[in-house]
Amino acid sequence: MLALLFRLGTEHFALDLAGLTAILPNSRIRPIPHAPPEICGEFNWRGRMVPVIDLRQMFFGQHCEWHLTTRLIVFRWQGKTQRGNVALRAEGITDTVEYRPADVQKPSVNDPQRPGVTGTLIADGKVIRLLDPQALVWDQLQDVLFRETAQ
After folding, report:
1. Residue extents of the structural domains in the chain
2. Among 22, 43, 102, 127, which residue's Cβ finds the most Cβ atoms within 10 Å?
3. Contact between 14 and 121 (Cβ < 8 Å)
């Protein structure tokens, strides 16, 4: 399997490439009034506004820093009754990592309020947390991100 490798601060993370729609340069993000801190705003992509989740804010309470390697990772999110494009903002996107499912260890801590980390991988001397983008949009974020579609 192939995953996109990135950093949030000094920690390494990865997303499986199979579910990704696009990887875009960090562009102008418009704020969304009254959004939770994890949702840093939205941007126009192909004529549609796409919400952006700041992964560093989500996991560590700090916004992603602006670097040449900061990117927006777009994926098609599918919930039980709602769906749409969502972008994840992350830093240090420069590489991919190949892995076998047998090499993935279960996460040491599971937070049912904030799911998303599906396992840990050790590759090239790095501890890498694997993320499931579908699980990152938990119930509270669904209500905010897709409230127009739900009404």
Report:
1. 2-150
2. 43
3. yes
For the chain, state the CA radius of gyration.
15
H helix intervals, the chain: 55-60, 133-136, 139-145, 147-150
For residue 14, give both structure tokens: 């990865």
- Domain 2-150 fold is OB fold (Dihydrolipoamide Acetyltransferase, E2P) (2.40.50)
Looking at the chain, the number of H-run helices and the number of E-run strands are 4, 9
Banded model confidence at residue 151, pLDDT cuts 50, 70, 90: very low
State pLDDT tens for residues 61-84.
999 988 888 999 999 887 666 678
| Cα distance between residue 136 and residue 142, in whole Å | 10
pLDDT, tens digit (0-9, with 9 covering 90-100), for 76-107:
887 666 678 899 999 999 899 999 999 999 88
